[in-house]
Queue: 2 jobs
Job 1
Amino acid sequence: MTFRIAQISDTHLSDRKPFFVDNFVRIGEALRADRPDFVLNSGDISLDGASNEDDLAAARALHDGLDLPVRFLPGNHDIGDCQDAPAHGEGTIDAPRRDGYVRHFGADWWSFDVAGWRLLGVNAQLLGSDLAAAQEQDAAIAEAAAGLGARRLALFLHKPMFDRDVGETEITGRFVNPAPRQRLMASLGGVAPALVACGHVHQYRETRSAGSCHVWATSTAFVLPDRLQPRYGIKEVGYVEHRLEPDGTHDSRLVRVAGVPTLNIADFPGAYGPI
Ligand SMILES: [Fe+2]
Ligand SMILES: [Fe+2]
């Protein structure tokens, strides 16, 4: 039987600054009508949970209101950014921030199997950090990859692995940086995930590289203006449906939800300050 995942991402939720809650609620209504096998939020669940735990609590409550099975992965706005990312406001991951995330959303990495597949969720901001949990996560990734058997691997994380090529050397906040990327590849031990699904860029895109299909989920909330961020794919809000078949084939698509506007962060200076 087909296993269907509804991936939402970059919901950027807050009670204090509820600019993007209406979009979430409307997309939630569409998800309840669609009834996927589970909903994945691939990070930036909260507006600014990295420095305000109230945002984590508000975001969790909104997800509980979906009344659907939900899994979470942390984004930079929930837990702080990677320690080697250029600073842009939300601070970097540390033990207190990670503990706060885990209190509200549970484990920040996880793995489980469905027919023909192993699903592996990874904390992208933890990769390559100096936290002791980084080594535990590396070991969990290695174990999940080594025990795949005949299954195919679907990897989920907040940030794209790279733009076009695993060998890219730029250090940015936009993709997993070179050192943590190499560490992730080493932990995978030569296994090429059939599907790599991420969020973070607020654009939908599907590309192929070295045996993997890379799918970027867009945000449910907002896009960034072209003057701040190049166009890699589609700048429209929505969610992504992934269909995993027991025979290892798979398909992903952007789902647009009627009545949900594509907001632009430039119109919300109260969210993160003027840009
Ligand atoms: Fe985001
Ligand atoms: Fe992000």
Job 2
Amino acid sequence: MIINRRREEFPTLASGIHLLSHSLGPAPRVTRDSMLAYYDAWEHHTSEDAWAASWWEMSTAVGDLIAKIIGGASGSVQIQPNASIGLSTVASCFDFQSSERNKIVTTALDFPSMQYVWDAQEKVGATVEVVHSDDGVSISTDEIVDAIDDSTALVALSHVSFRSSNRIDVAPIVERAHKHGALVLLDIYQSAGAMELQASVWQVDFLIGGTIKWLCGGPACGYLYVRPELQSELQPRLTGWVAHNAPFDFAEPPMRYAESVRRFAQGTPSIPALYSVMPGLQIIEEVGVKTIRAESERRTQAMIDFALEHGWKVNSPRDVNQRGGSVMIYVEDGPTMVKRLAERKVFVDCRPGVGLRMSPHFFNTDEEVREAMEILAELM
Ligand SMILES: Cc1ncc(COP(=O)(O)O)c(C=O)c1O
């Protein structure tokens, strides 16, 4: 496949082999211009009202671009300060205390915020069931499905695990949850921008994620997708004036939530964050998540084959249909290996228990990926 890797658009790539898309994607060169445009608009605000000219509409524009990338309809995504706040916004829509339906189903492979946020809801009447992982790498879909019953309020899981790159099978989980009257939230932080997602087709209720990793948007913002038909039924208690139907009325309470997905906003949007994410999102949208995934499948497989040929322990699923865009390779002393690889200009990271996390994205060349594996073989 001929793919435009657009390498010259990412200055950082000249400094080594960047395999960190599960953590912090490289900065697109145009983001510098975008940030300067933010400063110019701010500086000229008194003569040209920046809020009226563009700032007020920017959250919607960025939300719609994210919606497009994740297969959702326009008007389905509200920008959040980060994914954890997106999650807490969803949590604040439930009243666990006065309902028999108060169980949250999560898994042992989710990002810690998931556990922290749901554990905190136990104080207000929720019960949390964590589906375990036998090997610390994968989770049985059957066990997740079996945990869902008539007392389940929400199934909240990572689509792709930050720990092992395990990818769950969405359809049977959504089907079972909806059959039992429960809602489903997926954390797509490790899959959005790395593969094709089908928010609308899945009929999933909530998606949370952020821009820092595969979306090349930097540590800027998170986002929350809410299934369009569900939006008007929810009244998040984590809220603020921007979520009001007519925010500029500065009306007396009670709160009247916006008719749109803006009802899941809180206060003033972080405008510099929006300027900083736009260029990366546009690049991902232009390259196309289908192309990105095809490249990823081929390269992660080659990395796994290389690792197995060398007798290394791979802590990611072997089956491409159960895998995200990263490959985890066990090493004895992760932090030291990360440092030694960085000395050889190979940039990866590690997590306790699983070892190295290595993530090729569309901008990496095949030669780079191979070279990184060969350098690792020298150091092992
Ligand atoms: C799967 C996943 N979810 C959530 C987070 C945290 O998101 P935030 O810092 O925006 O709350 C991360 C990584 O930082 C992650 O990998």
